[in-house]
Amino acid sequence: MTPESLRGGENENEIDQSTDLNLLHLPVTDGSLELAKHFGKHTNLEDVEREAELIHWSHEHPLILFDVRKDDDIKDGIILCDGCVLPVSFPFYHCGQCDYFLHLNCVRLRRELEFPIYHEHPLQLSQHSKFYETYWCNACRVYNNGFFYTCKACGFFLDVKCAFLPTSIAHQSHKHPLVQIKGSEHLCKACNYTFSTNGYGCEVCKFNLAHSCALLPNTITHRWDNHPLTLSYPPFSEHPNEFHCEMCEEEINPNYWIYHCNDCDQSFDLECIRDIYSNIKYEGTLKVNRHPHPLKFVQKARKRSSYYSCGDSSDSTRPIFECGGCNYTLCLNCITPNI
Fold it and tell me: Which domain of life is it from (predicted)?
């Protein structure tokens, strides 16, 4: 079975050739890289004056500019920006005392944003005071510990990547361009989830996608399968009408999107496979009262149900604090009273 066999027929999913090539085309092959490129382009801040050193509202220490044309001594590996939680690329600012990183674009983000398609009030740029504090983005429905735009009176949060997504996109699942939706409730064609304002739609075809589904990557890797899983949408050809999710073992409705492994013929529904903690930067340690060693901020691997030091149990992939040498763990609810 070929990877294309679960992508639907050409008539249903082939993008109209008249679609503007300048649109953001989704799903992206490399989600982090492509969204970072678009984020930088849309904020249009590459031509601003680059100060060699600055004090930023988000950090207590001076930040130093690193530019690819003169600096090449940054450590290897993927470094995440503390603003947008995307991989850092030159130019960027860095605090040597704290390993705090900011893209040039994130340094210059506007402090107030008018975005009526998401919220009726002006949104203020902010961040939590603790590196491990997270928020739930009302657009992409994913937890984040980077910068956010918020209306505190309404408890509304929008991560900075979602705040600067375009008003129109092209998506492989539909042949017409999709525009941002504002108004009454809509039913997502990908997951059957009812959403109100944060999505994209085609008025001609009554085809709507929740924001979180429109941003799903083309392929993902997951510990339940040794191969990349491909995002696939109906109508499914050359395959039975019945799918069962390998994680929850429930039957999957063939009218909605799935992630599928063509090598193993395994399928996963979106709710089970979606990583709601994917926008969190896992770095930093804390000293706590109950344990002699520093605890590291990490993502818990969902291998089996386990008990935290407080007695609660969880089998999720939520963030935790742990001591690798002692197998001592604290959930986020227990951190504050133990610092």
Answer: Eukaryota
Q: Which of 124, 145, 163 is the last residue of a domain?
A: 163
pLDDT at position 176 is 93
For residue 11, tell me if it sits in a domain: no
CA–chain centroid gap for 16, Å, is: 28
Peptide bond preceding 3 in cis form (omega within 30 of 0) = no
Residues 168, 178: contact at Cβ < 8 Å?
yes
Same domain, 97 and 118: no
Q: Are residues 121 and 104 in the same domain?
A: no
**Residue 40 confidence (pLDDT):** 55
The enclosing H or E element of 97 equals: none
What does 39-61 look like in DSSP terms, one character per residue? Answer: HHHHHT-TTS---SEE--TT-SS
Same domain, 104 and 149: no
User: Which among 298, 252, 299 is positioned nearest to 272, based on CA atoms?
Assistant: 252
Residue 95, token pair as written in the block: 């605090």
- Reading phi first (left if > 0) and then psi (alpha if -120 to 50, else beta), residue 265 is in left
- Is residue 323 situated within a structural domain? yes
Asked whether the beta carbons of 320 and 301 are under 8 A apart, the reply is: no
- Identify whether 85 is part of a domain: yes
- Do 132 and 139 meet the contact criterion of CB atoms below 8 Å apart? no
Work out how many domains the chain is built from and give that number: 4
Diameter of the chain by CA atoms? 64
Please name the residue that has the structure tokens 């107030």.
112
Residue 124 pairs in a beta bridge with 112, 150
Q: Are residues 97 and 119 in the same domain?
A: no
What are the mean pLDDT values of the chain's consecutive 10-residue runs (339 residues total)? Answer: 45 52 74 55 57 91 79 63 88 88 88 76 91 89 92 87 86 92 82 82 91 88 86 76 84 90 89 88 86 86 53 68 82 75
